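Worked example 2:
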Amino acid sequence: MKNEIGKTKDVGYELGVRKPIPFSSDIIWSYFFSEKGIKIWLGELTSNDFEVGQLYKTRENIEGIIKVIKPYSHLRLTRKKKDWNNSSTLQVRFIIAKSGTTVSFHQEKLLNSKQREEMKDYWNGILDRLIASIS
């Protein structure tokens, strides 16, 4: 049996992308949760509630539940696109680096390699947009 990139024994397919951003974690964290920042990485929320245990929905037809928010460290939430039959888990980490903060997206419970590649490209694009927008 051939090993597939990103396929795990227990959580389907997963991926991770990360990039350094030349700003401190408090600046990145504040921007990430600003209205402009949320629109970039999550989408336009249909309500203003973004708290642990809350269901969120976006105008881009993404929904999920916020599981963990640990300020300046990480957050975890479920994420499901309207056309998906499955829900995935997304974790975002803010890692202090020599020249700022590394932002890391890790997504698991993806259905197949196609979803994995789609989301890998998506999160790389999101990181590029965040960097361009905050700079």
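The longest helix spans residues 113-134. The chain has a mean pLDDT of 92.
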